[in-house]
């Protein structure tokens, strides 16, 4: 992305993104409204499943136009199992007919300003009918006293019809080349780079622990014969636990190397054909930082939902397992930063709630946390192709938040996408501004006597949470330090320039922290000594105890002690920037992560962001003229106060990413500036700093405080159902705001869609600069008009909008188009036994992977529940402290 001066960037974000987005690729068609250009990568993308590959040109075009109008930036095509009764529409994967539909999709996407990625296969992981048993995944077995492979017989999960088959050996580059051959043939007639990228889902090659080249690569890496230790590795020959752990550590390091080489083949094949590569590295038995960092767009994922204490964020219909974890997410963003990858993505909102119980308001806190963890390229999970002639709810995927045009809240989906685009436009500009590197001691992770192949995924995260590395990361996050993690291989490519650490991707850092580590590879210790000699700032929280692995153990231990002595000598040199603490490698308790840390040394080199003391989370980018922050309040308490910044500033501009509203912030400038922020629970802000005073025409940020009590809007509301189904309920009137299921009759109890609420009300004369409209409890989103003027879409918590100049003394008319969830409509289908569950595989499961049936669900509250209030607001002088209370 081109670098844009700070204030120009602020104006682009605040103004252009208040309109629908288009792409510079081609002029938009009449069906899609024209608007200022927003880069397609800055808009959110979605995974687009093609059930049975049973796609047709007209339906593809229709959905792509719907995506463009909703503000999506692109799609990732993944064919999966099909729908019952539509087998005659199935297209053979990679056949000429299938490729023509793909080419049509790309042409239409280009016309509409959308990007296209595709999975290099169907379902997941890589595999298909052309994968032979020899090239299939193998598990490790002991046969006649020797290690050997035995087919896992695992087949592709959720494969498209005709693409079922064995998964490929994930450690065998030759097998991968043969797997890719049909793609090469199918793509040959098409121009190089005809779509943006290729995608690989998470590593789910279950029980794959062997490949034919493993013994030879093991010998090359570790200098001894693995077969000589076959019995110890497999547990049939007793050995000391440390010996077993060292042997298995070497075995696991070999798998890591083999899978990395496998990945390089796919990367090279893709680049030769003009594609970038997006990869979910998690789940692999390898150093995730190396795998994430090797590709063009590293991708993490979130699964489930987080119990943020934001008022109104309902927790029913959730799963309490596999909650998203910031430390896991940051493995992907760290690798991107260290290796200079501009984009880092996330599979977003997988199983956010139960099907059709997922409101747009539930997405924002999860996405905000992704942003503060360094993600800047959101991929929704996801959207399903569904033909025009299929009855509601259409074709579906079982583990998805249904970001589909069939979903009741689709018309309000664009408001979420505008929000994401505003934030990502900032987070994709400039460069990351993290001060610290934190070394990940992978050798400690694989030094375990239990088990064989170890996977490092996003679900069971004990491999991370139970370590000194995880405890240190937690402590640094809470203290407001900005940091990235780094692997042994990435550290080997890091150099010291003028006291800064410059990583292989060209990113600069001020210091390196090494958590309390038991097993440090000899090559890494040698690199630490080299960096120390070059003047780099290094802090080992404890001296490492030993080398990992079994080969040439005594020889390596002797060299290890020599190098450790050299590092100690450098640390003792006057003026040295090297510190070796005496932390506890096995520590636990509240201070275990920072035991051995010299706080004075750290603060002398690295600034922290005190805003985390107030419960706020952030990510920070650097621009030529200053810094850009994204700040989120994911707590249960409002922040209405001066907030200290960790970077100097002489001017600050704020942008509300929900609305695009911008202004010059109240600031106490200097080397330790303070900016005034007003953030309710669930709100966020973009903050742009300048190192120079700025004389511009931007209006000051509007700070307000209540000028009087909230006034309830009372009277008889007229309710007219305007869009949705299965049929529109009759109009109704209600003096009390309750769920429309309670006053709208039987049709309202099974309705999914939108109702228009209208109220005439009197507003007394009074002294107010503006008014704050608080909608109270909204089920689930509302487009609001006051006296004929749009106030915006209330889709996230808190459901509040400013009236601007549109509220007036005397008679006023408010209209709200409120959209509910589709839950009651699905409930009605199941109660009547309508056969909507028509997919061929896993048809259809709930959030606990049990058969889905909504017939016994209670009615889901729908519509405007209120109370609706207006609070008079007065402008707060820029350098005054705001009064306590709601805004």
Structure description:
By secondary structure, the protein is of the alpha/beta class. Helices cover 26% and strands 23% of the residues. It contains 20 helices and 42 strands. An eight-stranded parallel β-barrel has the order 1-2-3-8-9-10-11-12, surrounded by five helices. Strands 13-22-23-29-25-26 form a six-stranded antiparallel beta sheet. Strand 25 and strand 26 form a beta hairpin. Helix 5 packs across helix 7 and helix 8 packs across helix 9 (326-338). The longest helix is centred in the N-terminal third of the chain and has 32 residues, at 241-272. Mean pLDDT is 93; it is low at 1-36 and 880-887.
- The poorly predicted ranges are 1-36, 880-887
Q: Structural class of the secondary elements?
A: alpha/beta
Number of strands: 42
**Helix count?**
20
Q: Indicate the overall shape.
A: globular
Strand content: 15-25%
Helix content: 25-40%
Overall average pLDDT: 93
| Largest sheet composition | 8 strands, parallel, barrel
Radius of gyration: 29 Å
Strand order of the largest sheet: 1-2-3-8-9-10-11-12
Cα(first) to Cα(last) distance is 37 Å
Q: What is the topology?
A:
Blueprint: H1 6-15, E1 45-51, H2 57-70, E2 74-80, H3 96-112, E3 115-119, E4 127-128, E5 138-143, E6 146-151, E7 166-167, H4 173-187, E8 197-200, H5 214-222, H6 230-234, H7 241-272, E9 276-279, H8 288-294, E10 297-303, H9 326-338, E11 345-350, H10 360-372, E12 377-384, H11 410-427, E13 431-432, E14 436-439, H12 442-446, H13 462-465, H14 468-479, E15 483-486, H15 488-492, E16 495-497, E17 500-502, E18 508-509, E19 511-514, H16 522-533, E20 538-540, H17 553-571, E21 578-580, H18 599-605, E22 617-623, E23 626-632, E24 639-644, E25 651-655, E26 662-664, E27 667-668, E28 674-679, E29 684-690, E30 704-706, E31 711-712, E32 717-725, E33 732-734, H19 740-743, E34 752-763, E35 770-774, E36 777-779, E37 781-786, E38 789-794, E39 800-802, E40 810-819, H20 823-832, E41 863-866, E42 869-875
Helix pairs in contact: 2-3, 4-7, 5-7, 8-9, 10-11, 16-17
